[in-house]
Amino acid sequence: MTTSEPDRLSLTLAALADPTRRAILARLSQGEASVTELAEPFKPMSLPAISKHLKVLEKAGLISQRREAQWRPCRLEPAPLKSVDEWLERYRRFYEASFDSLDEYLRQIQKPETWPRDPGQTSAPPGSTQ
Amino acid sequence: MTTSEPDRLSLTLAALADPTRRAILARLSQGEASVTELAEPFKPMSLPAISKHLKVLEKAGLISQRREAQWRPCRLEPAPLKSVDEWLERYRRFYEASFDSLDEYLRQIQKPETWPRDPGQTSAPPGSTQ
Fold first, then answer.
1. What pLDDT, on the 0 to 100 scale, is given for residue B119?
2. Rounded Cα distance, B12 and A87, in Å
3. In chain B, which residues have their Cβ closer than 8 Å to the Cβ of A9?
4. Contacts of B82 (CB under 8 A, 6+ apart)
5. Cβ–Cβ contacts within 10 Å for residue B13, how many?
């Protein structure tokens, strides 16, 4: 892998690193749209500027464009997003673990004392008003 | 939001759009490491080049570096990765949907006939040898 030729995942992440391009994907997540339709919410951004963003997304495989006579709709291609998701997998335990700890902490401070765990029983601890 | 000042998520995605920086994060997912330790597997890449990558990661909030006299360990900061994960959420149904269909298809071709669903009963369909 050379730095002059970016790998697939780098290409995807670089394409996603722009709020306009992410907004275009969000629009396409609701269905196919023409370049003119995609450009509409970004006025006064020029059509060539939008086309440039679309080219970046297309090169990354995040969108495709059917070429018909009057109507050239763009559509979302989710495969590269799945690769990002898979790459994230090994890091998920870090932020999910922090949340588990926070949950645990919140559970602890909401209880006056720590009772032995018995998931089968729903009876309230002594002194509880429940 | 201006294009000259990238938003947080764009900063994160741009930082991740490089195989060396992703490899540094992978190393840090195994524990804290010094800059020298992080640079080791990337030889002959220079230490200043690695430091530049670390600055990009630090600016995106993906790593932090404790500053001590002899030992300045870097550590992974998972919060920005969680934001990427959350951003992916709305797209997940696109690639997961394809897998659901495949699962459904595989279930269909493995059954000789379709039986009415009754999750409460475990009895085998007529003709089964179970």
1. 47
2. 14
3. 19, 22
4. A95
5. 26
Residue B75 and residue B28 in contact, taking contact as beta carbons nearer than 8 Å: yes
- CA atoms of B65 and B58, how far apart (whole Å): 8
Distance CA B79, CA B66 (A): 17
Confirm whether pTM is higher than 0.80.
no
Beta strands in A1-130 (DSSP E): 63-65, 74-76
Are A13 and B16 within 8 A, CB to CB?
yes
Instruction: State the pairing for strand pair B74-76/B63-65.
Output: antiparallel
Enter the ipTM: 0.73
A16: closest CA of chain B, how far (Å): 7
Of the candidates B72, B18, B60, B71, the residue with the CA atom closest to the CA atom of residue B42: B18
The string of pLDDT tens digits covering residues A29-54 is 999 999 999 999 988 888 899 999 99
CA–CA min distance A116, chain B (Å): 32
Amino acid at B102: L
* B10 chain-A contacts, CB cut-off 8 A: 17-19, 22
| Residue A61 near chain B (CB below 8 Å) | no
Tens digit of each residue's pLDDT (9 = 90 or more) over B61-107: 999 998 877 788 999 999 999 999 999 999 998 888 655 555 665 56
In angstroms, the Cα distances linking B98 to A9, A82, B41, B78, B90 are 21, 11, 38, 29, 15
